[in-house]
User: Which sequence fits this backbone?
């Protein structure tokens, strides 16, 4: 690894898979996203489920039926046991999953753990927080379910996009939920925050810190070349500059108050590690979605690209998760380096950015393009690499 050139030589199985053509042996799924409720009580204007290219979720069955959920549990058990996975991550998702009721989600978690044993199942509910009251929190925490909440920082920034259909902001309800959650650390997964260029990055980060989250993840708005991200007249690396300033606020703190996933991933990759998220690096995608109707889908953020992008035409009734692994669209997302556009492969930071988040590459019917956030990612990666290079150069040399 040479931080001076921002090049990385990773090691390990995931990196070896990424460096070659499509893997001969697919990497099994280890993250399962279950769409347990397809409706939502918010109307966020950037929502990839309801407001962007593919809005078919509006007509999906509202609730995953007991029969479909039971069949999904059995299919997951087949996959986990056949591939001898020791740990799996399961996200109970939506829509808004709490519309199904906290007791229902707790029962689902119990059923999943029983089906997947002896594998460890790390179960998270990803919620907008508006329905997370003291009773719901207690039910989920007692069931050993982790809770992740979405909040875009301060009131003004959050309520700019995260509103009810009436136009009323969601901040007050989410603020109350996060204050409750901060008192139940054992159930606290963290906060997701979509980057808003109109919000100050350091103030946004500090606003999130007030809720004592164990993890923060900054997300770029889902966009692509056919539907570019809002930049408000700013330059092509404005999102990178925003994230670089947030990084400095996190990195310069005398005491590490929380983890920030995107920043930890960048440091890990720059220091030669393998990626642990699909939005960075070259590790093969290992996440799959089961919709409320029992259909297997690719990662749901693909709905931001075009109608039907997530579809596989496979279901839990007639197909296994191994069948999904053999689907051509999934196979190419496990191909690593060979799936990148030629311009990406020639870029000095391609092993770190990995071409960017797959949905962000879409243009004119193809994903074989650089990310629409290419300049942003390049700026951020080089900024983080520069900070690391300076600090490493200042360390005392010991032996070789």
Assistant:
């Amino acid at each position: 690894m040479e931080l001076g050139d921002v090049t990385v030589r990773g090691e390990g199985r995931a990196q070896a898979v990424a460096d070659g053509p499509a893997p001969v042996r697919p990497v099994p799924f280890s993250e399962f996203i279950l769409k347990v409720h397809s409706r939502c009580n918010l109307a966020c204007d950037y929502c990839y489920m309801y407001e962007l290219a593919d809005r078919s979720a509006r007509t999906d069955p509202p609730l995953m039926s007991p029969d479909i959920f039971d069949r999904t549990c059995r299919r997951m058990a087949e996959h986990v046991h056949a591939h001898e996975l020791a740990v799996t991550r399961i996200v109970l998702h939506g829509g808004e999953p709490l519309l199904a009721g906290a007791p229902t989600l707790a029962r689902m978690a119990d059923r999943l753990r029983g089906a997947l044993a002896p594998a460890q199942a790390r179960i998270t509910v990803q919620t907008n927080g508006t329905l997370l009251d003291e009773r719901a929190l207690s039910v989920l925490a007692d069931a050993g379910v982790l809770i992740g909440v979405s909040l875009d920082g301060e009131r003004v920034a959050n309520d700019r996009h995260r509103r009810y259909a009436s136009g009323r902001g969601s901040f007050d309800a989410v603020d109350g939920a996060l204050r409750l959650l901060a008192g139940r650390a054992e159930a606290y997964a963290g906060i997701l925050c979509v980057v808003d260029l109109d919000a100050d990055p350091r103030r946004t980060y500090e606003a999130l810190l007030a809720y004592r989250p164990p993890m923060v993840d900054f997300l770029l708005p889902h966009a692509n070349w056919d539907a570019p991200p809002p930049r408000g007249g700013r330059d092509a690396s404005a999102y990178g500059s925003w994230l670089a300033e947030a990084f400095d606020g996190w990195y310069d703190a005398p005491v590490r108050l929380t983890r920030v996933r995107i920043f930890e991933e960048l440091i890990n990759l720059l220091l030669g590690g393998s990626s642990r998220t699909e939005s960075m690096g070259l590790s093969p995608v290992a996440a799959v979605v089961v919709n409320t109707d029992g259909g297997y889908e690719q990662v749901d953020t693909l709905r931001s690209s075009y109608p039907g992008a997530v579809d596989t035409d496979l279901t839990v009734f007639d197909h296994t998760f191994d069948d999904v692994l053999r689907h051509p669209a999934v196979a190419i997302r496990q191909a690593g380096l060979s799936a990148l556009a030629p311009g990406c492969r020639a870029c000095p930071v391609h092993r770190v950015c990995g071409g960017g988040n797959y949905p962000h590459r879409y243009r004119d019917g193809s994903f074989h393009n650089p990310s629409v956030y290419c300049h942003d990612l390049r700026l951020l990666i080089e900024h983080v690499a520069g900070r690391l290079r300076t600090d490493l150069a200042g360390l005392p040399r010991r032996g070789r």
About this structure: The chain has 14 helices and ten strands.
